[in-house]
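Lab channel / #folding
Pinned by the channel admin:
"Please post every new chain as: sequence first, then the structure tokens as a reply. Keep commentary short and put observations after the output so the thread stays searchable."

First post following the new format, from NK:
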Amino acid sequence: MTHIDIPLVLTGFDKKSEDMHILREAEKCRLTVRELVNDGRIIDAFERSVETMRLMRTFSDFDNTEFRALLVAVLFDIVELHYEFKDYKQSEHELETLFQVLEALLKVDAERFGPYHIMAMELSTRILRSRKKAIDMLASQQAVTASLFEKVNTGMVAATDRLVDSLRKTAQLLASSGDYRAALKFYAEAIRFSKKRTGKVTRKEVKMTIEMAEIMMRIRSMHPRAERLLSAVLPHAINLETIELEEDILALLEVVNHVKDREPRWRQFMHRLTTKKTAKK
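Reply from TO:
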């Protein structure tokens, strides 16, 4: 479970006010939740998160930005805790609420809350059981993320790196289980977000593209697409002077061409074998 820290801006609150007290106590509760999770006391951590939400209900202004920022942090905890309990349906429901609160905050301060939106997307790739749901969620958030990358900051870069790594890991797991087409969708998303982050093609994007092509080569009908993809990324590997990646691309292209060249002869050979077996019968 990942602890998400969202620093609150409390300068606009009276230090002796009830609202300030609620925010401070809620932050302390979240620290306790982190300690309980680290100690493996998930039930106690969940109970404390519920208590935090109960405390926050007494806040005077639910539209307050800092209140909502804290709510986002608590929702991150609750989504993961429900997932730890294997209450997947509730975890997904809380995830939807998390996105709703975040989208409202992005309209207030996209630069401040943008990284947390990307973190929520990374979280969704880990907890959504249906890979189709995960891909649909990423697609539905494209319009939001497109505007976020216009204001790149350190937090945004770090959050996007985590999202890309999560998408890539999911793609690798899907490929190892034989779900190649789903794996390709996650690789495509990983590469898209990685390019958005850097604004150019780097070694990481080239490497992921090669991994994507390797999976395409496991599907006979996608061999031509794999060849086009490898041919397109080869100039980038050369410009980056990544000799090992360049060699990997050339080796895969050689394999594709070898398979293509031998295909007619192989079919004829298999046809002859089948014909002989039929004749003997």
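NK: The radius of gyration is 25 Å.
TO: also worth noting, The mean pLDDT is 87.
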